[in-house]
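Good morning,

Attaching, inline, the C-alpha cells for the sequence recovery test we're adding to the shared suite. The designed sequence is right after.
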C-alpha cells in the first residue's frame, strides 16, 4: 500500500478495481474530479502508482494504491483488512476489474478460465459482501459493478466471459432490489465494445465485432456510468445503438440470437 500524504478529512472515498487503464482508469478520474479520495486496486504496480500520482497532482486528492492479483482468492479479504487497519472507510465500491479470452471452449485454457471466474465473479461478489455490510449500517453507500452488453445473451467463442457478465447483471439487479430503502444503491454498467486494451488481451481484435469498427471510447463509457451511478440508476447501457441491440435481443428467438453472436465473434 502506498500513499504520499494524509487522507483529507470529510471527503468521501471510492475504491476502484482494475484502475490502471481503460474504463477503470476513466471511472477513477471521474471520482477524482469530484474530489473523492481514491483507493486504486490493480495488479500492475508501476502503472497504478503513476495513476495515483497523476490524480493527486491534478485534483489535490488522496490516493491509496493496493497492488493485488484478484485471481487469488484471499485478495478481497486482504484489501478489506488493509483498509480497516488504515481506518479508511469506503463510500463507493467500483467492481471494474475483469478479463476475457477468445476461442472454442473445448480448446481454451482452463487455468485462464478459472482465474477469469475468480476475478469477474467471485472477487466482485466477495468485495461486495465485505463492504456492503458497513454501507447498510451507515445508511448510505454506492456500488458500481461493470458488466457488459454481453450479459444479455450467450456468447459462442467467449462462453465463460459472457456467462460471467450475465451473473454480474443478475446479481446486481437482485441486490439493488433488496437494498431499496437502505440508503445504499447498486448500479450495473453494461457497455458494448469499447476502445480499450481489452480486445488485444482477449484475442478479439480480429473478430468481426471489433475489427475496423468505430467503438465508444472508455472516457465516454465511464462518464455515462458515473452519471448513472450518481443518479441511482440500476442498469446503465451506454449508447443508443447498444440499448436498441439489447432490446432486440430480448425480442428475438434465443437460438437465432446465439447464431448471430457466434458470427460476430468469429475471426475475420
Amino acid at each position: 500500500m502506498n500513499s504520499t500524504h494524509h487522507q483529507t478529512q470529510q471527503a468521501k472515498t471510492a475504491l476502484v478495481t482494475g484502475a490502471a487503464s481503460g474504463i477503470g482508469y476513466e471511472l477513477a478520474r471521474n471520482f477524482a474530479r469530484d474530489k473523492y479520495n481514491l483507493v486504486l486496486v490493480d495488479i500492475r504496480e508501476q502503472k497504478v502508482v503513476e495513476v495515483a500520482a497523476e490524480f493527486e497532482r491534478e485534483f489535490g486528492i488522496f490516493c491509496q494504491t493496493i497492488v493485488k492479483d484478484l485471481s487469488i482468492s484471499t485478495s478481497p479479504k486482504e484489501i478489506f483488512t488493509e483498509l480497516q487497519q488504515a481506518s479508511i472507510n469506503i463510500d463507493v465500491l467500483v467492481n471494474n476489474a475483469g478479463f476475457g479470452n477468445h476461442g472454442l471452449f473445448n480448446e481454451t485454457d482452463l487455468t485462464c478460465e478459472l482465474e477469469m471466474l475468480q476475478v469477474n465473479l467471485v472477487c466482485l461478489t466477495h468485495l461486495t459482501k465485505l463492504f456492503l455490510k458497513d454501507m447498510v449500517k451507515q445508511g448510505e453507500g454506492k456500488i458500481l459493478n461493470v458488466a457488459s452488453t454481453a450479459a444479455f445473451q450467450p456468447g459462442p467463442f467467449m462462453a465463460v466471459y459472457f456467462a460471467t457478465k450475465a451473473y454480474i447483471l443478475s446479481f446486481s439487479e437482485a441486490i439493488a432490489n433488496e437494498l431499496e430503502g437502505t440508503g445504499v444503491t447498486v448500479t450495473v454498467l453494461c457497455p458494448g465494445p469499447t476502445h480499450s486494451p481489452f480486445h488485444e488481451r482477449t484475442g478479439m481484435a480480429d473478430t468481426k465485432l471489433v475489427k475496423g469498427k468505430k467503438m465508444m471510447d472508455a472516457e465516454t463509457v465511464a462518464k455515462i456510468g458515473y452519471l448513472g451511478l450518481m443518479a441511482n440508476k440500476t442498469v446503465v447501457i451506454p449508447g443508443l445503438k447498444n440499448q436498441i441491440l439489447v432490446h432486440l435481443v430480448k425480442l428475438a428467438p434465443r437460438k437465432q440470437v446465439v447464431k448471430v453472436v457466434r458470427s460476430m465473434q468469429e475471426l475475420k
